[in-house]
Design goal:
The structure holds 2 protein chains of 2 kinds. By secondary structure, chain A is an alpha+beta fold. Chain A is built from 11 helices and 11 strands. Chain B is an alpha/beta fold. In chain B, about 40% of the residues are buried. Classes of the chains: A alpha+beta, B alpha/beta.
C-alpha cells in the first residue's frame, strides 16, 4: 500500500485532497451543528420561559381570585390548577410540580401535586435553592430526562409562589426537548450524508484533474525511458496549446535533436570504422604483391652485391612488420565493427599455455630469458576460443620477454569453481602508475625511445583486452617500476557465466613486492 | 611436363607476381583477369589447378568456382582478402578445396599448391566402405554398377576414412592427412567438405551411414553395410 502510494502520484494527490477536505468538512459540520443546536435551544428556552411565566400568572391569579378558608380548599384548588398546567402549554409535553418550600411549619393535609410520571430528580436541589433565593425572576436549568429508556435533553423552570394561609411554594415545569433533539439529529444526519457525498465528489474531481496533469507526465516519462532504451523514434502526441502540449512539443524537439546527434555520431563512427576496415582490405592486395616480390628478392640476396643484399634484408623485415601491423589493424577494426564471432570450445587451457610458450621459446632463447611454468597437476578446462587465447598469451609472453631484462618469466595457471586464470609475470623494468593507466591504449608504448627487439605493433594489448572482454573475462595488470609487471587473464569456465573473483592473486605470490 | 596452374586475379601486379613465384617453382602459370574470362580460359587451357581470387569483376570467384566445379573436379584454391567466415564458407561450399588468406607468402602458397597436386600414395589399395567401392587408380567410386563423381580431394577424404574403418579421425588429423597441413588450420575446411561428400555418397545425407560424426572427436567410417 505504502509502496503503491510512493509510486502513484495520482493516489498521493487524491489522498491528500481527501484528508484536507475531510478536515474542512468536519470543522464546518461541527460549527454548523453547534450553532444550530444553540439556536434551537435558545428559541425553545424563550418559549419555555414564556409558558412558565404564563403558568405562574395563571396559578397566582387563580389563587388570588379564590377565597380560601382552609387547607382543604387550598388543596382542592391546587389539585385542580396543576393538571391544567400540564396541558395548557403550546409546546408538547411538559410536567408540573408544585413543591412547598422547606423551613416552614408542616401543613397536615397538604400533598404536593406532581405530574404522574415526573421523576423528582429532574428538579435538582441547586435549582430549588436558587429559585428560593431569587423570587422575582424565573430560574431554569438544563437536565437530562429518560424517555422510553433513552436520555433526552430537557429544561426545568422554577418560580416561587406564595399562597395565603399556606405560605411559600415553588412551581416547577419540566419541558423535554425531544422534538428539538430530533430536528438537530435530522440536520446532523443530512450534514453527514452531504459531507460524505461531497468528499466522494472531491475525490473523483481531484482524481480526474490529477490524471489530466499526471497522464501526460507519465507518458513523457515512458517515452524518455523508451528513448534511453534506444528507441529513438519514440514521440509524444502534441494536442492543444496548454502547458502539457508545450511539454510534449519541447520533449519531441529534444528527442529529435538527440536522435539527429546520435545518428550523426553513429554514422560518423560507422564511416570511420568502415574506412579503417576498407583501407586495411585495400592494402592487402598490394601488400601480397610486395611480400611475394620481397621474398623473391630476399631469397636471391646472395646473388646481389652487399649493399643491395642488406637492402633486401631490411625491406624483408619491414614488410613483415608492416604485415603484422596490417593484420592487427584489421583485427581491431573487426572488434570495432562488432564483427567478431568467437569459436568457444570446452578445453584444457594448460595445452594452450603450452602452445603459446612453445611458440615464444625461440624469442626467449634469443634474449636468454628463462620461462618458468607453474601448472596445476590436472587439466584446467574452460570454454574459450583457443586461437584467440593463444594469441593473447603469446602477446603477454612476448611483452614479458621484451621488458623482462633477461630475468626469468613466471607463468602460472590457476582455477576455482567458476574461473580459470593465467598470470604472466616478469621482473623487468615495470611501469609507473601513469604508464599503467595507458597500457591498453592503442599504439601506446611505455617508452618510445626504447629499442624494440620484438617489434610489436602497438595494438597487441588493445586486441588482448578485446579478446578478454569477448570471453567475458578480465585482463588485469599490476606493475611497479624496477620490480616488474604481471598480467593476469581470468576467464569464466562457461562462456555465458560471470566471474566474481580470480583464482590467482595479482600481483602473484611469486612476486616479492 | 610441368603442371599448368590457372591464376585468376583482377590485380595485374599480383597476378604477374604469383605467376613469377609459380614459374620459379617449376609450374606453368596461365592467367585470367576477371570472372567471365576465367571460365573460358579454364575450358581452353584445362589446367591442373586453379588459384581463384574471390573478389572479381564480372562474376565473383564463388560463382566461377561453382561453374568450374560443375564440369571438373580440378583442385581449386581460393585467394581471399578476408579471413571472414562468410566468404570462406561460401567458397568452400561452392566447391573450393582450400583457401589462402592474403597477404600470404610464397612458401605458404606453394605448399598449398603442392599439397593439392600431390597424387594419392602409389600403394593405395581398393577399399570398400558400406556399399561403396573406391578404386584409387581410377579415382572411381562405385555403388554397385553406378559410378559416383567425386573430386580428388573428396576421394582422398573418403579413402582416408575408409582405409582405417575402426579409427576415429579428429579434424586436425584429417587436415594433416588429407589437406597436408602441418600446423593448426581452419577446421571448417573439414566440416564443409564432409557435408559436400555426404551429399554425394550418402543415401540420406541427414542420416549419414558412411561418414559418421563422433561427437566431440571427429569422424569415422560407417561400419554398416546396408
Amino acid at each position: 500500500m505504502i509502496a503503491f502510494m510512493r509510486r502513484s502520484l495520482t493516489a498521493r494527490t487524491v489522498l491528500a485532497t481527501l484528508v484536507l477536505s475531510g478536515f474542512a468538512l468536519i470543522a464546518l459540520g461541527g460549527f454548523l451543528s453547534y450553532s444550530l443546536a444553540n439556536s434551537f435551544y435558545q428559541s425553545r428556552l424563550n418559549q419555555v420561559l414564556n409558558e412558565t411565566e404564563r403558568a405562574v400568572g395563571l396559578v397566582q391569579g387563580t389563587v388570588a381570585a379564590a377565597s380560601l378558608t382552609d387547607e382543604t380548599a387550598l388543596q382542592t384548588l391546587i389539585n385542580s390548577v396543576v393538571p391544567s398546567l400540564e396541558i395548557s402549554g403550546g409546546s408538547g409535553n411538559r410536567q408540573v410540580a408544585l413543591l412547598r418550600s422547606p423551613g416552614q411549619p408542616q401543613l397536615q393535609l397538604f400533598q404536593s401535586p406532581i405530574s404522574r410520571d415526573l421523576d423528582l430528580s429532574s428538579i435538582p436541589g441547586e435549582l430549588r435553592q436558587s429559585v428560593r433565593q431569587s423570587p422575582q425572576i424565573l430560574t431554569y436549568t438544563s437536565i437530562s430526562l429518560v424517555r422510553d429508556g433513552s436520555q433526552v435533553p430537557g429544561i426545568t423552570v422554577g418560580a416561587p409562589i406564595t399562597f395565603p394561609l399556606a405560605g411559600d411554594f415553588e412551581l416547577y415545569l419540566v419541558f423535554d426537548l425531544t422534538a428539538e433533539q430530533q430536528s438537530l439529529q435530522l440536520v446532523q444526519n443530512a450534514l453527514a450524508v452531504g459531507g460524505i457525498v461531497l468528499l466522494i465528489i472531491i475525490a473523483l474531481l481531484s482524481y480526474f484533474v490529477t490524471r489530466q496533469i499526471v497522464k501526460p507526465v507519465e507518458k513523457a516519462a515512458l517515452a524518455a525511458e523508451a528513448i534511453s532504451d534506444g528507441k529513438l523514434d519514440e514521440r509524444l502526441p502534441e494536442r492543444g496549446d496548454d502547458v502539457i502540449a508545450l511539454l510534449a512539443k519541447s520533449f519531441n524537439k529534444m528527442a529529435s535533436n538527440l536522435q539527429g546527434q546520435i545518428q550523426q555520431l553513429d554514422s560518423l563512427s560507422r564511416m570511420q570504422r568502415r574506412f579503417v576496415s576498407d583501407v586495411s582490405h585495400e592494402l592487402r592486395t598490394p601488400m601480397t604483391t610486395i611480400k611475394l616480390a620481397g621474398e623473391v628478392i630476399f631469397g636471391n640476396r646472395e646473388k646481389l652485391d652487399p649493399a643491395l643484399s642488406r637492402s633486401a634484408e631490411l625491406m624483408q623485415n619491414q614488410i613483415l612488420r608492416f604485415e603484422r601491423l596490417l593484420a592487427d589493424l584489421l583485427e581491431i577494426s573487426r572488434y570495432d565493427a562488432g564483427a567478431v564471432t568467437p569459436e568457444f570450445e570446452y578445453q584444457d587451457i594448460n595445452a594452450v599455455v603450452g602452445a603459446a610458450i612453445a611458440s615464444i621459446e625461440p624469442l626467449a632463447n634469443s634474449m636468454q630469458t628463462e620461462i618458468r611454468v607453474i601448472l596445476p597437476p590436472k587439466a584446467v578446462s574452460a570454454e574459450f576460443d583457443a586461437k584467440r587465447i593463444e594469441r593473447l598469451l603469446r602477446n603477454l609472453l612476448s611483452n614479458a620477454v621484451e621488458h623482462g631484462e633477461g630475468r626469468a618469466i613466471v607463468v602460472e595457471v590457476g582455477q576455482n569453481s567458476q574461473a580459470v586464470a593465467v598470470c604472466v609475470s616478469d621482473s623487468g623494468v615495470g611501469m609507473t602508475r601513469q604508464q599503467l593507466e595507458r597500457v591498453f591504449d592503442r599504439f601506446w608504448r611505455a617508452d618510445p625511445a626504447r629499442q624494440r627487439s620484438v617489434g610489436g605493433t602497438g595494438l597487441g594489448l588493445a586486441i588482448s583486452k578485446e579478446d578478454a572482454i569477448l570471453h567475458r573475462g578480465w585482463l588485469q595488470v599490476w606493475s611497479k617500476p624496477k620490480r616488474g609487471t604481471s598480467f593476469r587473464l581470468t576467464l569464466p569456465r562457461r562462456a555465458d557465466s560471470v566471474i566474481a573473483n580470480s583464482p590467482l592473486a595479482l600481483p602473484p605470490r611469486s612476486v616479492e613486492i | 611436363m610441368s603442371q599448368k596452374i590457372l591464376v585468376v586475379d583482377d590485380d595485374d601486379a599480383l597476378r604477374e607476381m604469383v605467376g613469377l613465384v609459380l614459374s620459379g617453382a617449376g609450374y606453368n602459370p596461365v592467367f585470367a583477369a576477371d570472372g567471365i574470362s576465367a571460365v573460358d580460359v579454364f575450358t581452353s587451357q584445362n589446367p591442373d589447378l586453379v588459384l581463384l581470387d574471390i573478389m572479381l569483376p564480372g562474376q565473383s570467384g564463388i560463382e566461377v568456382c561453382g561453374q568450374i566445379r560443375s564440369k571438373s573436379g580440378v583442385p581449386i584454391i581460393m585467394l581471399t582478402a578476408r579471413g571472414d567466415t562468410e566468404d570462406v564458407v561460401l567458397g568452400l561450399e561452392a566447391g573450393a578445396d582450400d583457401y589462402v588468406v592474403k597477404p600470404h607468402n610464397g612458401a605458404e602458397l606453394l605448399a598449398r599448391v603442392k599439397a593439392r597436386l600431390r597424387p594419392l600414395a602409389d600403394d593405395a589399395a581398393m577399399v570398400q566402405i558400406g556399399s561403396l567401392v573406391l578404386d584409387p587408380q581410377t579415382f572411381e567410386v562405385k555403388r554397385g554398377e553406378a559410378s559416383l563423381s567425386l573430386t580428388p580431394l573428396e576421394f582422398k577424404l573418403l579413402h582416408t576414412l575408409a582405409a582405417k574403418p575402426q579409427q576415429v579421425f579428429s579434424r586436425e588429423m584429417l587436415l594433416e592427412q588429407v589437406w597436408g597441413y602441418q600446423y593448426k588450420a581452419d577446421t571448417r575446411l573439414v566440416n564443409v567438405h564432409v557435408q559436400r561428400l555426404r551429399s554425394k555418397i550418402e543415401v540420406d545425407a541427414e542420416n549419414p551411414r558412411i561418414v559418421m560424426t563422433v561427437r566431440g572427436h571427429g569422424y569415422r567410417a560407417g561400419t554398416e553395410t546396408s
